[in-house]
Amino acid sequence: MPTTSSRLLTLLSLLQTRRDWSGDLLADRLDVSTRTVRRDVDRLRELGYRIATTKGPDGGYRLAAGADLPPLLLDDDQAVAVGVALRIAATGGAGLGNNVAEGALRALTTVRQVMPARLRRRLDTLPVTVVEPPGGPRSDVDSAVLLALGAAVHAREVLRLDYASDATGGGAAPRRVEPHHLVTWRGRWYLVAWDLDREDWRTLRADRVAPRVPTGPRFAERELPGGDVATFVTGRFRGAEGSTGWPCEGEVVLDLPVAAVEPYVGDGVVEAVGDARTRLVEGAWSWPALAAALCRFDAELEVVGPPELAAAFGLLAGRCARAGGAGRG
To answer: What percent of the chain has pLDDT over 70?
Structure first.
């Protein structure tokens, strides 16, 4: 027979796994009477857990949100996942600014202190080092700004904001938008919103947004081009509205073995053509950009198609020849 303390922990764990539990089912899981379940529920309430009781023949219990955060019961995998997430946030990898990073570090210290030794070892075997890409300043977002944007998205309320048109913060212009989604893309936070004045969709960098208060009236949700936020955001940054693909996609055969090509291909498709050649299908936002990207392999290549890619290579060849001639002059 488990002790009262261990039974309380088991009961709390069960209440956290689903929304509603009947008294009979809890009693069966804990191998106790329904009267004991009622007493254990009362003990948890005394510890600060808000457990609601539902009436009726199939009445039961539900763990509700409280005014204060009570102690949480996590399984091993959950505890390690929380620790890793806090470590990433503490090192600034979430782009949330110093306030959140400092809070994450304090939380990580607290969580690690109460972890069993076996879990501390698992967490310590997952060291996280956030490496900033070279070039370009950091664009951390004030957590208060993210909370304000998130609240407007959740409430579906028109948001008035100032938006800096460049990274220096200058050129702010007031806007009225319907905020639909708060997303991250390659280390930056963006607000996906319908601009009421421009009557078009916009992806606004959150670090350049200054929300104004109060918010405006509620609005009806609009359908994004492409049908979902992932398709819309990917297409917007790739220049292919409403699609996750590139607007320009071509195929070439490189005079390089596949092992020399594959490590440097992002979302392209590679296929070996014999031992010394590789077929590559890759995309970009324009044909000249795709041609220039393919030249990075510094190898002879054959254009399979389409004709627009071959024409782009001709255009670049002329530009490069003129640039080389100007340099000799």
So the answer is: 86
Q: 231: Cβ–Cβ under 8 A, 6 or more apart, which residues?
A: 224, 225, 242, 243, 244
Give the Cβ contact number of residue 320 at 10 Å: 12
Residue 96 has what pLDDT? 64
CA angle at residue 145 from 143 to 147, to 5 degrees? 70
- Gap between the Cα atoms of 203 and 184, Å rounded: 11
Regarding pTM above 0.90, the answer is: no
CB atoms within 10 A of CB 224: 20
Q: 159 near 211, Cβ under 8 Å? A: yes
Of 115, 23, 48, 112, whose CA–CA distance to 76 is shortest?
115
pLDDT of 166-190, one tens digit each?
A: 544 555 568 999 999 999 887 788 9
Residue that has been written with the tokens 């109060």 in this structure: 214
